[in-house]
Amino acid sequence: MIKGLYTAASSMLANQNKMSLISNNLANVNTTGYKKDEGIQESFPEMLISRIEKDKKPRAIGSLGTGTRLQETYTDLTQGSLYATGNELDLAIDGDGYFVVETPEGIRYTRNGNFTLNDNGQIVTNQGYLVMGEEGPMQTIPGRNIQIDGSGQLYLDNLRGDSFLVVNFPNTDQLTKIGDNLYTSEVAGEEELADFQIRQGYLENSNVNVVQEMVKMIETNRYYTANQKVITAYDSTLDKVVNSVGSIG
Amino acid sequence: MISALWTAATGMNGQQTNIDVISNNLANVNTTGFKKSRASFQDLMYHNLKQPGTTNAQGAEIPVGIEIGHGSKISATQKIFTEGDLQNTEGALDIVIKGDGFLQVLLPNGEIAYTRDGSLSQDSTGRLVTSDGYPIYPEEIYIPEDASAIGITSDGTVSAEIDGQDEAEQLGQIELARFSNPAGLNSIGNNLYTATVASGDPVVNTPGSAGYGSIEQNFLEMSNVKVVEEMVNMIAAQRAYEINSKAIQAADDMLSTANQLKR
Q1: What pLDDT, on a 0 to 100 scale, did the predictor assign at position A146?
Q2: Residues B92 and B212 in one domain
Q3: B205 and B90 co-located in one domain
Q4: Within chain B, where are the H helices?
Q5: Structurally, how many domains does chain B consist of?
Q6: If you count Cβ atoms within 10 Å of the first and of the last residue's Cβ in chain A, which end, N or C, has fewer?
Q7: A242: pLDDT confidence band, cut at 50, 70 and 90?
Q8: Cross-chain CB nearest to B68 (options A20, A210, A228)
Q9: Which residues in A lie closer than 8 A to residue B65 (C-beta atoms)?
Q10: A246 to chain B nearest CA, in Å?
């Protein structure tokens, strides 16, 4: 059949996946510490087309693209804006790094500093996962005032507690999102110290830029329609070929 | 189908709950001792089409994978226990807790509930009760009929001058309960909370002792809802709802485009 038909279809598929990414960004516009995803499209390898003549070697006359695909999704880790909540256990990381939390499946990382206490006085996430300090789970003492300084050092009244463990990765691209504002790092490499400031009483907004996402949405929608038009055009060509040229009798 | 449709729908759902929470805060802007709630969001699971770090057909390591998220959800509606503004009411039985702690009241079913609402009054027997008629726990405090000038000191001691007596008579002692995680308390309405596993067990002590708030007479604690803040949150939630509906429209547009492929 006509190559262009499949080329246009591949672009429609890629744009459909892109639309899913945009939707997810928009759905998470109010999610604390959410980092937006960007889709990166890649063309399939171009192929050479050649002229075939009798008794001669085929001669290349140029190349032809055969379509496109969503090659990777890239998480844009730029800092979201901070907003004041006044809650003593709301922490925002200003700069690089991730809080370390212990889940039943193992160590996970998060930028969402919306913490609470559990009934043992340990600092936990909304799902009840323990937030780790340098010497183990972050422990508080009931009845004592909680103060956290810029380096993540915890003070209970004037008593020095543990310090929040904040880590970074040499290759943050390989962090995998698993939902619940958590990331895993199976292949992201060794942890290294992060350059950060902890802000107590603040949370980090998601870094989704609504205007940008809306424009991308319109763009994606139009590209999708354009490719549909290409397919319809090819289809009418095929219609001619099959029904007019090839009419018998 | 296009997963974008469902993804955007989760966003709309979440924002709807967010508006519910904000509405409740605004409805309680004048409720004594009311503590505002805040909805927190989380992203949902991800569909990993390509795992980063795996090797491709040529043996090279793939630096970045493809992960497509499936929207957001409300992870918690958290009570924010910051202190509300104080209001001078001149009422002898109006008290505020300056600092941490809850008054304990005994419910008719024998359960103990906790409240920050200090607008107390007397019932027909002179017993000190909340505005709903629940007596103060653990010590029932009776105010004699001939009592004048009731005094409540910062450590919770209730006393009254009684006609014909030189010294004020001590009537009882108010105690405060604290929780290791007040955000885990269960709101049961009427300004009352009950303890849960998440909040931990109450620890009771006299007002003014280390870590506990002190009692101030003649004042009430207003709600800690800040109207401007809630209005801004409401605008943000409404717009977030709208953009998610736009995403649904766009996804629907794409579906209809796909439908027109075959004429």
Answers
A1: 86
A2: yes
A3: yes
A4: 3-27, 227-259
A5: 2
A6: C
A7: confident
A8: A20
A9: 72-73, 176
A10: 21
For residues B215 and B237, what is the distance between their CA atoms, to the nearest angstrom?
38
In whole angstroms, how far apart are CA A102 and each of A114, B17, B42, B149? 15, 28, 17, 56
| pTM for the whole structure | 0.81
pLDDT for residue A202 is more than 60? yes
Same domain, residue pair B217 and B104: yes
Same domain, B169 and B95: yes
Decide if B66 touches A, using CB distance below 8 A.
Answer: yes
Provide the strand spans (E) within B15-125: 37-43, 46-50, 66-69, 72-79, 86-88, 95-98, 102-106, 112-115, 120-122
Q: Is the CB of B74 inside 8 Å of chain A's CB atoms?
A: no
> Which residue of A lies nearest to B185 if distances are taken between CA atoms?
A119
Q: Which residues of A touch B201 (CB under 8 A)?
A: 119
Does B96 lie in the same domain as B14?
Answer: no
Residues A226-241: pLDDT tens digits?
Answer: 999 999 998 888 888 8
Give, in degrees to the nearest 5, the angle at Cα B18 between A108 and B229: 100
Residues in chain B with pLDDT values less than 50: none
Which range of residues forms the domain containing residue B167?
Answer: 86-221
For chain A, what are the domain ranges? 2-77+208-243, 82-204
Contact A30 B181 (CB under 8 A): no
Q: Are residues B30 and B156 in the same domain?
A: no
B70, B175: one domain: no
